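### Sample
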Amino acid sequence: MSLLIKNGRVVTSNDDFIGDVLCEGETITAVGQGLTAPAGAEVVDATGKLVFPGFIDPHVHIYLPFMGTYAKDDYDSASRAALVGGTTSLIEMVCPGRQEDPVEAYKLWKSKAEGLSACDFAFHMGVTRFDESTPAALKEIVADGTASFKVFLAYKGALGVDDEELYKTLALAKELGVIVTAHCENESLVSQLQAKLLAEGKTGPEWHEPSRPVQVETEGVRHLMTFAELTGAHVYVVHTSCKGAVHAAMEAKLRGVQAWVETVIPYLVLDDTAAQKPDFEGAKYVMSPPIRAARHQPFLWDALRSGAVSTVATDHAPFDFGPGDGSGQKEMGRGDFTKIPNGIPSVEHRVRLLYTHGVATGRIDLPTFVNAASTRAAKLFGLYPRKGTIQPGADADLVVYDPAVKETLSAKTHLMATDYDAFEGWQVTGRCDLVTVRGKKMVEAGKFVGELGHGKFLKREPTHF
C-alpha cells in the first residue's frame, strides 16, 4: 500500500517547506515537491496543514506496580491515546522491585506490550539493585535491544540505589555504551522532610512539594553528575522541573560531562497551585519531582528554546482519583500525602499542549517543537534516522496536524484509562488529523482507526561509548 501526502508544510528539526511525502510499504521513499502518486496509492491533500515526523515519548509508565497499586493504563488504552495525540513510539521505564530478577522483570514488561500495542515501543531497563549477578543480567537485556538504563536516586528502600550501586551501574553503562536515565532527588532529605511535615500535622497534597523542594532535586542532579564525571558514563536527567536542576546539569556539561536534560509537559503548563486545590483535588497533580512555582516556567521554556533542555516527555503515570469515598487510587493518600500514588496522565495531550503553549504562543518555533518532541529522543536513544525525521529510508511514521482546529480536553473524551483529566476543560490548538505508524493509518480525522498489535518492539544498539 502506498500513501502520498501532498501540499503540506513539512517540518523536521532542521527543515520547513511546502512539499509532498511518499510512503511505500513501511518506509518513506521520497520527499519533495510535485511528487507523482504510484498506481493505486492513496493521496491525502495536506494543504494548510503541518506534516511532522511521528512523535516519540521517551518517558512513560504503562505497566507499573507502584505504592501498593497498579497504573490504570495498559497498552490497549495507552497506545491508542498516544496515537490520537500524535505519539507513534513510546519508551517505557521497566521498574522492578529490588528483590525481583531483572531479566524476568524485563520479560514481564515486554510481554505487556507485545501483540497489544498499536504504536511502536522500546524500554529503559531499571536498575534497582546491583550485586554480583547484575552485570550478566544487564548484558543479556542490552543484547536483546534495550540500550538504556534507568536509576532512581529516590524512593529509598523500594526502587532507589545506593552510591556503590550507582557507581557500578554507571561504570557498566560506560563499558557497554549505554546511556543511563536518572530520577534525581536526594532520597534521605526527602525522607527527613516528609517525616517533619507529617509530625507537624501537614498531611494534605499541598505539602508534597515542600517535602521535595528544588534544593533536593538540584542536589540529586549534582550527585549524579559527580558519578558521571568519574565514570565517563553518558547520563540523561529525567523530568527536570526547576532552574537549579538544569543549571547543575549545564555546569557539569561545561566540565565535559556527557549529559542531557528532559522536562515533561506538566512542568511547562502547570504550577504548584494545582496541588493546592481544596477538597483533596490537589492529589490529582502529585508527581515527583513536584510541579513547581510558576516562576520556573519561563526559565524552562527558555532552556527548551536554547537547547539546554533537550526533550519534552510526559512521565505518564496514570492513577484514578476516585469517587470521593476513599476507594480511589489517589485517595490512598488521604491523611498522608506520602501515600498518594505519584503521576499525572498526559500521554494523550503532550504534543497538543506543547504546540498550544509553545508554538502558538511564540515561545518556541516549529523545528524546536519537532526536535524536543521527536528527533532528539530518537538520536539519544538509538532510533535515528529510522525514527524522528522525514527522509527517504525512515519509517513512515507521520503526523498531519491541522492547526486550525480547536478542541477541549476532558475525561469524557480522552482515551486514557483514568477517571479524571489533569487538563479538564483546557482548550488546545490543533489536532492530529492523520497519524501513521510504518505506513499504516492509525488515526484519521482525530479518531483511532488502527489495529491493536500493530506496534513493534524497537531493537536498539548502544550508541554512547
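DSSP finds twelve helices and 19 strands in the chain. This sample (D-hydantoinase) is used throughout the tutorial notebook.
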